[in-house]
Structure formats: C-alpha cells, structure tokens
Amino acid sequence: MRILGLILVFMGIIPCAISQTILVEKNIYNSSKPIFLHSVNDDLNEVFFSSPNTTSLLYYSIKEDKVIEDKTVQASRFLGYVKLNEVYSLVQYEDRLDVKNALNKNELNTLIHPRDNYNITSITYDNESGKFFTLSNSRVVSMEINETGILSADTLDLTSELPGKPNRISSYGGKPFLSIDHGLDLSDIYLVDSVKSEKLRYPINYNARNVAIEFLNDDTLFVSRNLRPGENELVMIYASNIARSQDSLLHDKINLRTQEQIDSIKAEAYVNAMEFTDTVSRDIGKGRFSTLIKRTNDAIIAMTTLNAALENNPRSFISKKDSVFFVLGPKRSAPSDAKLDSLYFAEAGIASSMIDLGRDSAILPNDVVIRLKCLDKATGEYVGFNVDYYDYESNTLMKSAKIQKGEVCYFSYLPKYNLGLTITAEGYLPHSIRFDNKKRLVQMKQVEKLVMLRKYQEGLVNSFNLNNVYFDFAKWDITSVATRELDIIKPMIQNAESVTIVGHTDAVGSDTFNQELSLKRAKEVRSFLEKNGIPKGLIKISGKGEKEPIATNKTEAGRAKNRRCEFIIL
C-alpha cells in the first residue's frame, strides 16, 4: 500500500466532473509503523485495521468512538480481513481465502486453496453491490461470497491499459478503485470499469504516503496514511457527496440528514445546515529563525497585527513571554528563509525584522487561527464575501476584509477574549458568528470554518438571526458590539420592502415577564436603526417570549443564544 497524494472521488457522477469537499477530519489511530486498513462494515459500523505495533486485529467502533483490540485474531499472519456479520469473518492470506467462525475457533472453511494458484494481493467488500472485489495475479475479480463458499466469480474486463501494476483495491458504488505502482515508491488511485480507467484527482492529503482508503457511505470514508517517517495515522473523513463544482456540496442531502444519522457517524455532531467546523493540525514551521513583526504588552494590538499578517502568511502566530506578546512570522531553519519572509511582509506594507529565537525556538502559538470560507447554500459554489471581525470588550475592529470568490480568509484570537464575526455578501442574507472563547487553548490546532450563505429571495419571506446582537440576562439594552453588527447589515434593511424584528428570551422567568422582555428587545433594536437612518414605519416588531428557543435552556450558553432578535425581511 504505497500511495503518494491520494486522489479519490465518490461515485454517482461522470468522472470528468469530479469534486468533493472535506468537512470533518477525525484522527482515529496513530502509529510509528504503517497502518494496514482492511475493511469497513457498514451494518456494524466498524472499521478493521492492523499495524506491526500490535499482533492482533484492531477495529474502530464508530458508535462507541473508540479503538478495540481483538486478540482472538492474529493480524500479523494475514493480509486482509472482512467481517461478513457478527459470527463469520473473511480472512485473506497471500495464497488462500478462509472463512472463520467467531463462535467456534476450530471451524474453518477455505474458499480459495493454495493449489488454486491464486496470488491474492487485496480484497474489499462493496456495500452497494454486495460483492467482493479482489486483486488476483494483477487482475480484478468480482465475487459473491457467503459463509459457506464462493457463489460466483467473474474477472472484470478492463479495456484500458493501466500505467503500472495494481497493488491494492477498494470499492464503492459497485466499482473498484485501484492503487497503481509507478516506481520510486509512488502510486496513484484509478477508478476502473469496462469502458475506461480514470485517474482520480482530488487530494485527501498532499503530503501523505502509504495511503489506503475504504468507504462507509456516500459521506464518510477512512484513510490510512503516512505523513512523514515514523508518523502514521488512520483518519475518518466526513465529506460531501459528489457535487457540481470545486468545493461544492449536495446541500439538499445534508439538509435532509437527521441529527441521529450524524451522531451515528461522529461521537458528537459537528455539522448543521449553516456551518461546518473542524480542527486540524497547524503548521507554523520549524527552526530557530523567524521574523519579528510586533512586540507589545497590549493583547488587542497583538491580535490586530497578527490578523493583518495572516493575509500575507497564514503560518504567522503570536507567542507570549511574561507580559509581552510577540507577533512572529513562521519559524525557519535558515536565516535566509526568514529574511525572505521579511521581504514578503514588506511588500504587503508590514515592517518586520529577522530574529534568532535561540533557546525559545521550541515556542508554540498562544493564539488560535480560524480558516474561513463561504459557499452558496443552494449550489455549493464559492461566494465572494465581506468580513468584519471585532473584539467584544473594547469593540475594536480586529480585521475587515473583502474576500474574492474562491478565496479563504484567516483570523486569529487569543483565548479568554470574546470576538464577533459578521459576514455579508451581495445578494445574500448576513451571517454572524460569536466566539465565546471559554475553552482552553489547544496548541498547534487550526479551526476550519465553512459557512453556508443563503441567497436573499426577492418577494419571499427571508429570516435570519444576528448572533452578535445579544442581550444580557433580563435586559434589553443594546451593546456596543450589537450596534456595530446592526450598522453592518443596515444596507440590507434599507433596501427591504418590509422588515419585522422579533424579540426572544430564554426560559427563566414567567411567561408574562418574558413576553414583555422580548418586545422591549425588539423595540430597542428598532429604535437604534431608526435613529441611524432607517425610515420610520418600515420596521414592525413583535415578541415571542420563550416560545421559540434555538438552543437548550438547560445551560448558560444555550440560554444566551436564545436571548436574541430575529429579522424577517421582504
């Protein structure tokens, strides 16, 4: 299993229109030695794999979210493993194929004998067709198998010449995927059928070696990869189905997916209809040399400076020593590389100087980086957007940027600071995110944020919430941060035919009190907008009290989300 730059596609679309978006990537298992990914059982929600670090079979239980060692199966002796059901398993050796009974260790049924002269390189089970695919003497064989024997076997007629020798097979949608050796310890993945052999294009990881893939369903696959010598990992990737353009999604399918289905794939739900969030490893470089962009005792200045620097180099970071914040470019092993970074910063109008970190070369970031991109919720296509990023306490604008279609934007914050983010795009409803940074810093992690923007539908009812227009408990005063967000979305309100502001509360207090409080909150927002240029009479108000929560009222965080105003525009 030697594959560099794994390239895959989900079935269900013509290969020339291949595209996919990775939404969540979860690390399941790490090993200093290669991880051999064997199979996935969709019914049992189990993923089977092994590694030279252990002589037993390992499997990951998706429902329990944990890796379990099966000591009854000696993984060091076999090449492949497929669990047929709770009792029977298919074990692949180099020259034979056995069926084993978990209830009776002595019961063994050999389906392919050494005398059959088969050299079985790999085997996989296809959930859709219910067939097994094997590589035997470099040929793809499709088989129907049960615990008693091989019911049928057909060699696939591959009309296209492959550019090398296949060394591993996986399958999805009734078709096989082959990894093809082409020298220098490199391989590519090909989708193979009777018409053509199509090299797959979408990279799971640009720097990975020894990669194997197995599919659970349309949206979830497992990848075994070697990132660098001595660092191997098995990851679960929750991704979109095939879509229409680069980084687009079949959002109608995602919208129909129930929370229970999501939870069956992930231990906790990462996905909702409007936002997708994940954390991935952060790269700030290695070495003792860097560029010093700013030295300051002011955290707000440090964050503002870093947010500007990230536009030039996303690997920039903040390091704090004693009471001083250092805004730095990426760490480099050679001073010439750091000097080159300094030149690039200078071209962007950012002054910096090369420094030798010396004994501080092992420093890690004290900030958290967010990588944001926005897509059209209906089509999945990239959207150009404007962002405003601000600190709650001081109401300082940390960053304001216009992001072109197809581009991403980087933000940063220091833990313990609360920040707001407002996203606007021409022809779309605004979207806002509130960062309540109460969690401890997880160093060397980067937050991936994918936001789905909804188009404004002329002549129809459009509604949205602004998460940074919030209210303290039992109060209706507008905060300075709320006024900033209201100013940002004011042009949309000015151009609307009619606007209704609906106030909401949490569930603490009597129904009568909350009804009055929700109406006061709507009035306060209307009053601010009318004082700032919105014509009087355009905005109507109503209060819903505690009747329509959007989060649980059992926690303070949930209650805070429910203390809001909803905007309905035509």
Describe this structure in words.
The protein is mostly beta strands. It has 3 domains: 263 residues, Methylamine Dehydrogenase, Chain H (7 Propeller), CATH 2.130.10; 72 residues, Sporulation related repeat (Alpha-Beta Plaits); 112 residues, OmpA-like domain (60s Ribosomal Protein L30, Chain: A), CATH 3.30.1330. Helix content is 15%, strand content 41%. The protein contains 7 helices and 38 strands. It has a 4-stranded antiparallel β-sheet, with no helix packed on it. Strands 3-4-5-6 form a 4-stranded antiparallel β-sheet, with no helix packed on it. Strand 5 and strand 6 form a beta hairpin. The longest helix has 21 residues. The N and C termini lie far apart (57 Å). The N terminus is likely disordered.
How large is the radius of gyration? 28 Å
Q: Could you tell me the strand content as a percent range? A: 35-45%
- The CATH topology of the largest domain is Methylamine Dehydrogenase, Chain H
Count the helices. How many? 7
Distance between the termini: 57 Å
Q: Indicate the structural class.
A: mainly beta
CATH class of the largest domain: Mainly Beta
Mean pLDDT: 79
Task: Specify the biggest β-sheet.
Answer: 4 strands, antiparallel
Question: How many strand elements?
Answer: 38
Side-by-side strand order of the widest sheet? 2-22-21-20
